């Protein structure tokens, strides 16, 4: 029995697409057996096999790169918040917020990670005759022994992209167009604004186990008027002239600022103008970045 022989804590993952929620960290064998009921009896993530993995300790990092089948152009890294509640408590979600840049991960270190993680994948696929063209997302754990890959995705990451792209000063269109041609990204580099970006995700009642639909959302126009703030819609719909909830993660509120504290406070200023029944959001997004540069925390 694999669960009886495993070291704990252990990680159990649905072997398939699960909207970022198909991971359960089990502190003990008993919790692992409860998790198997979620996967196989409740089938919360559909019919799936389960992967049992080592639990890694370290700092999570998300790094996107644009690839042309030969070259890898990394964007600036971001850090997201997977758990539903403050203090990284509760079940995993698709992501409750993010920020960029990430302290201690400058251009040089980012290039080193892309060379160690993204480039071997692109090189191997080219040698196999199936060159990879597009965005390669790497979800990483930065451990004492170096970066470890948690997952790859062939797409932009959510909610990391919401914090990365507002800082991009190079033309995303030009980078994507150049990526269509083999070797088209040779010599290319992505340039970024020095300001910080913080994204706060607003979720509906019941998320991540379920979601509430049809709740009228107020305050969107007021939030959008906060300087250097962008409100992007995820799980919303129009009904009788109102904007209503239509999914688990409903809105993203992203703000730019000269410091992580300024960006964070601006994002929460706008997010707190938004309201609907059962609204959920974490209040500690970017705390780590704020503490790292010696600012006071608090929305």
Radius of gyration: 20 Å
CATH topology name of the largest domain: D-amino Acid Aminotransferase, Chain A, domain 1
Query: Based on CA inertia axes, which overall geometry fits?
Result: globular
CATH class of the largest domain: Alpha Beta
Write down the overall mean pLDDT: 93
What structural class do the secondary elements suggest?
A: alpha+beta
- Secondary-structure element sequence? HEEHEEEEEEEHEEHHEEHEEEEHH
Compute the number of strand runs. Answer: 17
Key structural traits:
single chain, 299 residues, alpha+beta, Dna Ligase, domain 1, D-amino Acid Aminotransferase, Chain A, domain 1, Glycinamide Ribonucleotide Synthetase, Chain A, domain 4, four-stranded antiparallel β-sheet, 8 helices, 31% strand, globular
Would you give an account of this structure?
With 299 residues, this protein is an alpha+beta fold. It has three domains: 2-54, 2-Layer Sandwich (Dna Ligase, domain 1); 59-179, ATP-grasp fold, B domain (D-amino Acid Aminotransferase, Chain A, domain 1, 2-Layer Sandwich), CATH 3.30.470; 196-292, Glycinamide Ribonucleotide Synthetase, Chain A, domain 4. 25% of the residues lie in helices and 31% in strands. It has eight helices and 17 strands. The chain has helices at 2-5, 29-41, 107-127, 160-164, 172-179, 220-224, 260-271, 287-292; strands at residues 10-14, 23-26, 50-54, 59-68, 72-74, 79-80, 83-85, 89-92, 97-100, 133-143, 146-153, 196-203, 213-216, 229-233, 236-239, 242-246, 249-257. The strands form five sheets. The protein has a five-stranded antiparallel sheet with strand order 6-9-12-17-14. A four-stranded antiparallel sheet has the order 5-4-10-11, with helices on both faces. Strands 2-1-3 form a three-stranded antiparallel sheet, covered by helices on one side. A hairpin with a 2-residue loop joins β15 and β16 (242-246). It is globular, with a radius of gyration of 20 Å. The model has no long low-confidence stretch (mean pLDDT 93).
């Amino acid at each position: 029995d694999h669960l009886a022989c495993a070291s704990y804590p252990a990680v159990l993952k649905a072997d398939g697409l699960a909207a970022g929620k198909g991971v359960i960290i089990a502190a003990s064998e008993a919790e692992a057996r409860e998790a198997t009921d979620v996967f196989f009896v409740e089938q919360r993530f559909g019919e799936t096999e389960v992967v049992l993995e080592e639990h890694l300790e370290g700092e999570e990092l998300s790094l996107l790169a644009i690839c042309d089948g030969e070259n890898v152009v990394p964007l600036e890294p971001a850090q997201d918040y997977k758990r539903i509640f403050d203090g990284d408590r509760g079940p995993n979600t698709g992501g409750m917020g993010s920020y960029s840049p990430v302290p201690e991960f400058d251009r040089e270190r980012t290039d080193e990670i892309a060379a160690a993680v993204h480039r071997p994948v692109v090189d191997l696929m080219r040698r196999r005759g199936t060159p990879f063209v597009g965005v390669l997302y790497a979800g990483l754990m930065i451990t004492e022994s170096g970066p470890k890959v948690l997952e790859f995705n062939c797409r932009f990451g959510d909610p990391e992209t919401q914090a990365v792209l507002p800082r991009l000063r190079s033309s995303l269109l030009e980078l994507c167009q150049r990526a269509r041609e083999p070797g088209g990204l040779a010599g290319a580099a992505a340039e970024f604004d020095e300001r910080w970006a913080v994204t706060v995700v607003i979720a509906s009642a019941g998320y991540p186990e379920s979601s509430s639909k049809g709740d009228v959302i107020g305050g969107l126009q007021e939030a959008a008027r906060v300087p250097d703030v962008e409100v992007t819609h995820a799980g919303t719909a129009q009904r009788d002239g109102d904007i209503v909830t239509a999914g688990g993660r409903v809105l993203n509120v992203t703000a730019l600022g000269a410091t992580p504290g300024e960006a964070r406070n601006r994002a929460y200023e706008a997010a707190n103008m938004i309201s609907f029944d059962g609204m959920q959001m974490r209040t500690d997004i970017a705390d780590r970045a704020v503490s790292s540069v010696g600012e006071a925390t608090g929305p």
